[in-house]
Specification:
One of its GO terms (molecular function) is DNA-binding transcription factor activity. One of its GO terms (cellular component) is cytosol. Belongs to the LysR transcriptional regulatory family. This is Transcriptional regulator, LysR family. Keywords: DNA-binding, Transcription, Transcription regulation. It is a single chain. This protein is α/β, with parallel strands linked by helices. It has three domains: 77 residues, Winged helix-like DNA-binding domain superfamily/Winged helix DNA-binding domain (Arc Repressor Mutant, subunit A, Orthogonal Bundle); 106 residues, D-Maltodextrin-Binding Protein, domain 2; 99 residues, Periplasmic binding protein-like II (D-Maltodextrin-Binding Protein, domain 2). Helix content is 44%, strand content 20%. The chain is built from eleven helices and twelve strands. It has a five-stranded mixed β-sheet with strand order 4-3-5-12-6, sandwiched between helices. Helix 1 packs across helix 3 and helix 1 packs across helix 4. The termini are far apart.
């Protein structure tokens, strides 16, 4: 039986301290004083009879007991948030909103088809779509602020406590404008001669791209622009001599239309699975089940 002395505030404070890696920043996020949040953490540790965090100069670090407790504490906060959202939806004349995170690899190519199919299957459900890098969306998923994330599988350490259902495989493209000088002599080692649009550290494809560059003997790229913005990448690449390194799905339409051109570089090392990500503790709602069906229809229609 759960110890009745443990309150929601204990769990919320502990989770926020770990997320912020600082008692001070956690206190600011929760609109509390630092002594108050410190007292709440101490109460929780006394109830559990063990230390959950170790304070150091860098901030805080989890003990082994803290690591175990964090997993279930995050699930509890996420489940509570789902419950609050559900009550809010019922209060809003019964309207239902499904919050989806879409990585750049699917936002441009797959999501429009998914939404088209989903609106046919469930026109009464409002879709709320958030795009961004892998790490950002996975954090929102863990917090219960997203119901599902669709995109490329991340590195092992970023997928702890996340369920992944594979849909298809995708690879990375190196693309330029038509008539780019590199098309006449396509050598990856010449990348440093032009600006390169590169995925930031939080993106799932970053480690794979770095592996390809090392394999082809490409050194440091001095003129590098880091972004996951598809709108910026399309416009900047089309108007300049920049080389854009991006997931194939993001630029499939532009390549088909001839607005961008694929460089003939070997990128087999970047092939990886794209799929649906969810919290394993969350039971799929009818809205989520309909969305999954719409995703499968879109994948089949696009033959990806």
């Amino acid at each position: 039986m759960i110890d009745r002395r443990i309150k929601v505030r204990h769990i919320q404070c502990f989770v926020e301290i770990v997320r912020q890696k600082s008692l001070k920043r956690a206190a600011e996020r929760l609109s509390l004083t630092q002594p108050a949040i410190s007292k709440t953490l101490k109460e929780l540790e006394e109830i559990l009879g063990t230390a959950l965090l170790i304070r150091n100069r860098a901030g805080v670090a989890l003990t082994r007991q803290g690591e175990v407790f964090l997993h279930f504490a995050e699930m509890s906060v996420a489940a509570l948030q789902q419950g609050l959202d559900g009550v809010e939806q019922i209060g809003s004349r019964g309207s239902i909103t499904l919050s989806i995170g879409a990585l750049p690899s699917v936002a441009a190519r797959l999501m429009p088809e998914v939404v088209r199919s989903f609106r046919t299957l469930a026109p009464e459900i409002t879709l709320r779509i958030t795009d961004g890098p892998h790490g950002y969306l996975i954090d929102l998923l863990r917090q219960g602020r997203l119901d599902l994330v669709i995109g490329r599988l991340g590195q092992t350490d970023t997928m702890q406590g996340i369920s992944f259902t594979q849909l298809y495989n995708e690879y990375v493209e190196f693309v330029v404008r038509p008539g780019h000088p590199l098309l006449a002599d396509p050598d990856m080692r010449r990348l440093s001669e032009w600006p390169v649009i590169f995925p930031p550290e939080a993106s799932a494809i970053r480690p794979l791209i770095e592996r390809v560059l090392v394999a082809h003997g490409v050194g440091e790229i001095p003129d590098r622009i880091e972004t996951v913005s598809g709108a910026f990448g399309r416009n900047f690449t089309a108007a300049t001599d920049a080389v854009w390194i991006i997931s194939a799905g993001v630029v499939a339409k532009e390549i088909a239309d001839g607005r961008l051109v694929r460089l003939p570089f070997e990128t087999a090392l970047t092939v990886g699975p794209v799929g649906l990500m969810s919290r394993p503790d969350a039971q799929p709602t009818p809205a989520e089940q309909m969305f999954r069906k719409a995703v499968n229809v879109a994948v089949e229609d696009l033959s990806v």
